[in-house]
Amino acid sequence: MQDLVNIGAVPGSITLLKVRREDMNRLSPAILPLLLYPRKSSRFFIFIETDSEISLFLDQQTSQNFSYKYVRPCSTKWRALSIGTGASVQGAIAQVSSLLSALGVPMFVVSTFDLDYILVPEDSLTRTVSVLMKKFSPDSSLLQQLQQQHLQQQQQLQQQQQQHLQQLQQLQLQQPLDSHTEQPDTTNTVQNPTDLAEHSELSDHSDLADYDHSIADSESSTPLGSCTVDDYPGNKFALHTEKVILTRPRDLDSITQALLRMMFYPTKPNWFFCYVDIAEEISVYMSETLYNNFPHRSMCESSEWRVLQWLNKSSKVSFLSETKALSEASVPLAIAGFDVLYLSSFTSSYLMVQTEKISGAVTALLHSHVNVVNESRQPLVVEEPVEDELATLGNIY
């Protein structure tokens, strides 16, 4: 019998950006409307900031408001699928990550209060849905829905191309007949954000298995070859000391000022902040110390979690490597029955386990040969004997 998992498709493509802290103020004209104006059902906006990075996930319409002069875009377009499960389905994301890892499809994961979202490359969407349908029996109309969306996008693209062609023809008619008139050289001109992404250093990596994961600031950096988990045996996950709060606002107006401080003020040590706005559902992750910056009773349904951060074994690894590492850690946690939240950024992945259960979760990982270290990179060791149920766990697939 197949597990019943509700899988939905988020319309349109998703853009992934990396931002330098010093450029955040320059992006305020694009970010402020997302916090001040009414939410939209089509919005997909994720802001992730830690000590070391700022990552943005944006829907196509929202991304057009961002100046690509101050961000590093990933040339690959992504598509998002929502994963909703019933109480009887255990470890759906763990199973999805294993399936896609074996398929060679990289993915990001973002957990909210109500749903998990996975993001896969746009050209792998149909293949991903087909595999998930066989495993989980989602709504059989999903593929038809995706095909219809793809057809609509192709039609829109053709219309834009026709309009562009008409504009070129009009310009040619308006040009003087003098053949000696100099014309501007537009050979290297970037006309729009999409073109800019194609001209960026990221566009050289069409195969995500060979993708430079880090986007080094140095212009002299060169991509490595294909990097997989096998190249760096024994993935490491660092257990953060500070707790992270998952919450959501009672209303957006009451927390807008606090959100602006989080996004635009300089970061402090152990900074962990994530704002998720997807289809009118807002979820906020933040370090425990940051939680006090929000007005009293402005948040509801808060819960405490401990963070396990995947540590890159190299400054340049592939998104597919990240997916395999996620699978390696999430499967034993799912088998042992732990609830897990997921958060992927440009340069890392984070798994979160409820604070009161973190000891058992670390034990389960260690006995599955997943390395866990503290924030000082010192390895953690098992202090308790293996429970009988952990010693006899079978494969959940």
Q: What can you tell me about this protein's structure?
A:
The strands form two sheets. Strands 2, 3, 4, 5, 9, 10, 11, 12, 13, 14, 15 and 16 form a twelve-stranded mixed β-sheet that branches. Helix 1 packs antiparallel against helix 7 and helix 3 packs antiparallel against helix 9. The radius of gyration is 23 Å and the shape is globular. It is α+β, with helices and mostly antiparallel strands. The C terminus is likely disordered.
- Count of helical stretches: 11
Computed over alpha carbons, the radius of gyration is 23 Å
- Helix and strand pattern: EEHEEHEEHEEHHHEEHEEHEHEEHEH
Give the helix level as a range of percent: 25-40%
Taking the alpha carbons of the first and last residues, their distance comes to 12 Å
Features:
twelve-stranded mixed sheet; four-stranded antiparallel sheet; alpha+beta; about 400 residues; about 30% helix; disordered C terminus
